[in-house]
Amino acid sequence: LKVQSVGAVLRGAAGVAALAAMSQQSLHSRCVQLNVGSISDAVSIFSAKNERGEVPLVLIPAHRSPFSGTGWWLTIPTGCYCLMQRFGKDVGIAPPGGSIKPPFYRIAYIVTSQSCNYNAPVKECPTSDNVRVSVDLHIVFNIQNPSDFVYKLGAVHFDQLLSGAVDEGIR
């Protein structure tokens, strides 16, 4: 985990006002899984800033139709992991680029390969010597094994584990 500090200790009334303004601007992040219409939108969704504090880790693309013009053509974007299934069974990570695949091959999950920023502000947390502090914790992480992440953990459970670990670690 990588923690970044504010940089300087704020002193006096101006420092308290600045600290209060910073803590009001901070929003607790949530790791989420989203549905997406097209595989080609994945990288832009992973890169977009979200005002609700959501960090998209996994996308579920819509099924492709065998009767559309691109029904057999499958384009895999770079910058993400695309987990492919054949008749609903995992066959691994699809390589980037274009290929011809019958419709029973599908991209079931798209997992970000980018570094993700997780923000966890804590207001008025008591320390061991009973002093109240406000902390804005910033964590940068990335997913190394997308298959294990999707099939064994998932974005929602990861969010619950990360949030609990952050809350416990700050106390």
Outline the fold blueprint.
Elements: H1 12-25, E1 30-36, H2 42-47, E2 54-61, E3 73-76, E4 80-86, E5 89-94, E6 97-100, E7 105-112, E8 116-126, E9 132-141, H3 146-153, H4 155-170
Parallel strand pairs: 1-2
Antiparallel strand pairs: 2-7, 3-6, 4-5, 4-7, 8-9
What does this structure look like?
- A hairpin with a 2-residue loop joins strand 4 and strand 5.
- Residues 1-24 have low confidence and may be disordered.
- The strands form 3 sheets. Strands 1-2-7-4-5 form a 5-stranded mixed β-sheet. The protein has a two-stranded antiparallel ribbon with strand order 3-6. Strands 8-9 form a two-stranded antiparallel ribbon.
- The protein is α+β, with helices and mostly antiparallel strands and 171 residues long.
- It has helices at residues 12-25, 42-47, 146-153, 155-170, and strands spanning 30-36, 54-61, 73-76, 80-86, 89-94, 97-100, 105-112, 116-126, 132-141.
- The protein has one domain.
- This is Band 7 domain-containing protein.
- Pfam families: Band_7 (PF01145).
- Residues 75-170 form the Band domain.
Key structural traits:
171 residues, alpha+beta, five-stranded mixed β-sheet, two-stranded antiparallel sheet, 4 helices, 9 strands, elongated, disordered N terminus
Work out the number of β strands: 9
Q: What is the number of domains? A: 1
What is the strand arrangement across the widest sheet?
1-2-7-4-5
Beta-strand content bin? 35-45%
The helix fraction, in percent, is 25-40%
Radius of gyration from the CA trace?
A: 20 Å
N-to-C order of helices and strands: HEHEEEEEEEEHH
The computed structural class is alpha+beta
Poorly predicted runs are 1-24
Q: Gap between N and C termini, in Å? A: 17 Å
Shape: elongated
Rounded mean pLDDT score: 81
Helical region count?
4
Largest sheet: 5 strands, mixed
